[in-house]
Amino acid sequence: MPGVWGAGCWIGGSVIILLVAITLHQEHSEPAELPRMAKDLKTLREDYRHLNKSCFILGASGETGKELLKEIVQSQLFGKVTVIGRRKLSFEDEAYKDVNQELVDFEKLDEFPSAFQGHDVGFCCLGTTKAKSGEAGFIRVDHDYVLQSAQLAKAGGCQHFNLESSRGADKKSSFLYLRVKGEVEAEVEEVGFERFSIFRPAVLLCDRRESRPSEWIARKVLAPVSYFFPTAYSVPITTLVKAMLNNAVLQSDKKVDLLENKAIHTLGKIEEEKKS
User: Fold this and answer.
1) Rg (CA), the chain
2) β-pairing, 80-85 with 54-58?
3) pLDDT tens column, 53-102
4) Do 256 and 196 contact (CB within 8 A), yes or no?
5) What is the pTM of this model?
6) Which of 157-166, 239-248, 249-258 comes out lowest in average pLDDT?
7) Residue tagged active-site, from 70, 96, 171, 177
8) Exposed/middle/buried for 263, CB within 10 Å: 0-12, 13-18, 19+?
9) DSSP states of 170-230 as a string?
């Protein structure tokens, strides 16, 4: 027994050391420099409000989209806010009274070009899982719906398209989820927006209404590591949506912005740092 116990401790210790080593590599391998800010964030937001831009959100019924809509309404950054979805959402808060809703059939998006007309900025938070929708359903939502929405948005005058993707997205990946995410990133880039921002969050921290056992397990397993290395394997949804909006108001000379998990953390906390 002592020998078995010792071997178990050695294996466990080795796993911990390996995990820490990987984490340290992840922490230092992702660029997270703040973009240059000619003005402080408060001033940039005021300047942005005066532009009276309009925006739309795809996937506002999901966890990220719901939180993003809440942040957009509270920040009042846009003169007009539109939710594009397959069903009408109910809002009890009076703050949402001016939010427009466009109902579409994602299986027949070509029949709804007007829903995508006249928006300056688009936020796409569409997504499902293979477990929920099957392989074909997952590809249809995370690839086909996203790409066709981007094409209609571009035709409708959208200048800045924001896409919620995933950490590890790679069109050459052997994993379906990551491959599809990488493929749609590349194809949306080819649509030719004036500005295209890709957000690649790791495990999203939220109280998800929809049960996703794999995410629950990942959050539990990574909780101790995330405590010491908060930007390595996870990100709160609130931080992600703040990063999206902060990125929108910041000046950028890049046609394509690719924000990995650590950069999302950094960008999403600019406001907090400014206040402290």
Assistant:
1) 20
2) parallel
3) 999 999 999 999 999 999 999 999 999 999 999 999 999 999 999 999 99
4) yes
5) 0.83
6) 249-258
7) 177
8) buried
9) -TT-SSHHHHHHHHHHHHHHTT--SEEEEE--SEEES--SS--HHHHHHHHHHHHHHHHST
Helix (H) or strand (E) holding 271: helix 270-275
Give the amino acid at 199: F
Pairing of strands 80-85, 121-124: unpaired
Rounded Cα–Cα distance for residues 118 and 101 (Å): 14
Six-digit token string for 112 = 């709804």
User: What is 31-275's CATH number?
Assistant: 3.40.50.720
181 catalytic? Reply is: yes
- Tokens representing 152 are 């209609």
Q: Is 177 a catalytic residue?
A: yes
Q: Active-site residue among 66, 154, 181, 242? A: 181
- In the chain, where are the structural domains located? 31-275
pLDDT in tens, 95-134: 999 999 999 999 999 999 999 999 999 999 999 999 999 9
Q: Which two tokens stand for residue 132?
A: 């929920």
d(CA 228, CA 266): 16
